[in-house]
Amino acid sequence: MAKMFNDNVRGMLTGVCCAAVMVCGNVSGMMSDVVEIAGSILISDREQFCAITPEEARDIKSIKFDGIEINSSFVSSFYSAMYHCIDSLSFNNCTLIENCFFSDLFDSEYPVVDFAIVNCAISIKDASLVLSLINPHLVRIIDFSKNGFGGHEILFENEILKKRIYGRMCLDAFILKESGFSSNFVDRITQHNIIF
Question: What is the mean pLDDT of the chain?
Fold first, then answer.
């Protein structure tokens, strides 16, 4: 089951069947060049997202940000528009600028089911803070693949696994593909629904 949550289908809703891809020229009169898949959207331009109103955002059940530069304007827009429960939220190949962090995007107990920060060079400290700010009872899948955590196994185990995952979250899958971990580390922790 966890294999279906790879990069090719990351943007689809958890539990929602796949629908035909429709390229929209205009969504609610505000956004252009947005890809919509069964109630989910793919945004590859920061200005597209900043144009979404809070009313429009309430209809979003799944959103994938791809290649976005996250700055203070984006953080402000995200914080005001995406406060509602969302099924799937992912950031892929995103870059933090203007001293922003992924943890700046969330308030306590952010409601999300399928959550991913993939290939964004998130730090272990920021990842730990993000996990402390998402609802541990609602989230079922977390994907932190390709973030270069390898070489920092002890810090990762203490800050992420022991402090944020074990005994706090009941995950169906914690995906860490291509993260650079040593084989000893992988062998030691694979029994905890962690996918490498």
Answer: 80
Residue 50 corresponds to which amino acid?
Answer: C
Q: Are strands 173-175 and 141-143 parallel, antiparallel or unpaired?
A: parallel
Higher pLDDT, 30 or 172: 172
What are the tokens at 194? Answer: 């962690």
Q: Distance between CA 142 and CA 55 in Å, rounded?
A: 27
Least Cα distance to 132 among 105, 164, 157 occurs for 164
Threshold 0.85, pTM exceeds: no
157 vs 73: CA distance, rounded Å: 33
Element (H, E) at 128: helix 124-133
Measured in degrees and rounded to the nearest 5, phi and psi for residue 131 equal -65, -30
Spell out the residues 6+ positions from residue 143 whose beta carbon is closer than 8 angstroms to its own.
5, 10, 90, 115, 116, 117, 118, 173, 174, 175, 176, 177
AA identity, residue 64? K
Domains and CATH numbers, the chain: 31-195 (3.80.10.10)
Q: CB-based burial of residue 21 (10 Å sphere; 0-12 exposed, 13-18 middle, 19+ buried)?
A: exposed
**Token reading at 42:** 């793919």
Q: How far apart are the first and last CA of the chain?
A: 14
